[in-house]
Amino acid sequence: MKFNIIPKPETRKFNYKPQFYTPKEEKSTVEKEGYNPGEFAERLHRSWNSRRQRKEKMQFPLKLVIIMLFFAFIVGYVYFKFFVK
Asked: 39 pLDDT exceeds 70?
């Protein structure tokens, strides 16, 4: 006799419903929505132009400051190591 103390969970069932492309249905959907590729391209270009022309705030050049401090440290080290006795 088999006793199950811990029951096994049921396996998950895969429910796949294939979707097929039908040109007739696609055309009717596009006509209902009023899709105009020229309008989309125009809006896209306007958006790109506004982003390009928008001036971003000047950020603090932290990377540049770190590099300058690094070089200043190296120059100071070389100066005190070789030129100061």
From this structure: yes
